[in-house]
Structures are given as C-alpha cells and as structure tokens.
Amino acid sequence: MYNQELVTIIVPVYNVEQYLPKCLDSIISQIYKNIEIILINDGSTDRSLAICEEYKEKDNRITIFNQKNQGLSSARNVGLDNAKGDFISFIDSDDFVAADFISELYTLLKDTDSDIVQCDYIQVEEDDAVFIPKSSSFRTEEFSAYEYLQRLYSKKIYPRNVVVWNKLYHKNIWDNIRFPLGKLNEDEAVVHYIYDRATKITVSSKILYFYLKRSGSIMNVSPDMEIKRYLHYLETLTQRSDFFELKGYSELKEETLAQKGKLVRRIYKKNKKLDSSLVNYDLLICNYNRLVYDALDENIKLYLKNRYIKLKLKVRLLYIYLKLKYKGNLSHSIE
C-alpha cells in the first residue's frame, strides 16, 4: 500500500447542468481520498456555476475558478496552472468515473513506475443504464514513449490513444505544455508532446471511465464548424509532423503525412455530400475546395512519394489536386 500523494482532478465546466451532478458525485465518491478537485466554469449561462458552488459547500476539496467563455483549452489550462497535486487527471463534466478510477490508476502507476497510465472506457447514451461486463481479470501492457507514439493512428484502440481524459499523469509531464487556445481537436494537438516525455506508459483494459455521447456534442456540428474542425486537425498534423522531424522520428513523420493525405481525401468526399439546399451552399463548397486544395498544393509531391499511402489513394489525391487547380471554385478563402 502506497502513501496517498495528492492527485489533482481538472474538470472544465460549460452549460452542463443536466450532467454535472452525476459527474461530481462520481468524483467526490472516489475511494482514493487525497484529491483536489478543480472546477473551471467557462462562462456557463445555465445553473452549472450554482451546482459547482453547491458541491463546494459539501466538499472542501473543491476549488472553483470562474471565467468568461474562452473554450475547453483555456479552462483546462487554468486547471493546470493552479494544480497543486503530484499527479494530474482530466474528467469532462458530462462524463463520470468509477469509484476506483483514481485508486486503480494511481496503484498501477506506482506498481509499474510509469509516467502515464491509462484505463479503458465505455460510451454511454443519455439516460442509459451503465452495464460493465463482469470480469475479475484484465490485462496491462507497458510501452516506451516511442512505442506508444507508434499507436497514434491505430483504429483498433481509437480514441483511447488520442484523448487526455482516461489517464493519470505525473504532473511534470505537463511542464510548459498547454492546450492551444481557440482550436478544436485540442487533445490531438498535445498528445504527441505528452507521450514523448514519458519514460513508460502503461495501459489497462479495466473500464473505469464513462464517456457520455450527447446530442449537443462536438460530433453534431454545423458545416461551418466542421470545416473549422478539419482545418484545425490539418494544422495539428502539420505541427506533429514538424515535431517528429525535429526529434528524428522519420517513420512517424511519414505516417503522420499519410494520415494527413487520408484526411484530405475524407474532406473532399464530405464536400461532395453537402446538402445543396443549404443557404450558404456555394460558400461552403468554396471553403471545402480551398481547404483541400491548399493541403494538396503544399504536400502533393510528398504524398506521391509516401510509402504509407497506397497507390490508389495517391492517384486519387493527384486527380483531386489537378481538378481543383484547373477547374475548382477557389474564390473564397477560409478564415
């Protein structure tokens, strides 16, 4: 049995009055007691702040920070800037965790001398009863930083490998690393930096985190917002590729470029499925075309040389590039 070191749990809060009590109940009921709970109210316009204050009255481990709406990245950064714990965990305010979420991850981290540990999760729908498969056994796997970076694009374990919320971290892993402000896909923007700092990452198959898929989630977005999400993800992949080049990870750089090529193809296919009855249909088409063309114009030669991109996709990317270059409507630029 280890001495319980302080663990900081960071919870960004924005207009989640319907889900917040369940989230906070699961946190204050943790078997592991030595925790500080940082709630960052990001300009909520519903009762979320009032709920935070009610829970603070009941539990002195809770600290509330209140700010104007600046987005998830800003809220998480406030938590990181004010964390006093030796270890860090993130929980989204519409999700909830098992009572042994922290205790299991903390014990695993200490037992394996890891810098980051990860549990499994299940996705739940609103008002669904949670069913956890009965199993007394679960497996753990240990990885070096590079080995885990090689799993970034694994569809088999997605999204476990690209989110920050199902993990426990040594606090020093986050030194001088913060989430980018004003960007979507904020987890993807930092995970490669975080993983690269770890000496060892241990993954458990035990289900300890419950991810709520709700109607107002980022997956249900307008076409304009979807374009912005694609743009930000392309930027993230570019920055990641540059980082891997700086580190000398040539294979990871090539894989990242291939991932970018696949994303460009996916964006183009999405463009073709736009509803022509949309009021701003012509503008959306222009913006999608511009997004795809710029990504191809920058990298088409690299895509054609990339050994992780299949010949069929290379031909398709070249076709799209030439079509947009000579016949595409590119009169608008993306802001």
UniProtKB/TrEMBL annotation:
<keyword id="KW-0808">Transferase</keyword>
<keyword id="KW-0328">Glycosyltransferase</keyword>
<feature type="domain" description="Glycosyltransferase 2-like">
    <location>
        <begin position="8"/>
        <end position="143"/>
    </location>
</feature>
<protein>
    <submittedName>
        <fullName>Glycosyl transferase family 2</fullName>
    </submittedName>
</protein>
<dbReference type="InterPro" id="IPR001173">
    <property type="entry name" value="Glyco_trans_2-like"/>
</dbReference>
<dbReference type="InterPro" id="IPR029044">
    <property type="entry name" value="Nucleotide-diphossugar_trans"/>
</dbReference>
<dbReference type="Pfam" id="PF00535">
    <property type="entry name" value="Glycos_transf_2"/>
</dbReference>
<dbReference type="GO" id="GO:0016758">
    <property type="term" value="F:hexosyltransferase activity"/>
</dbReference>
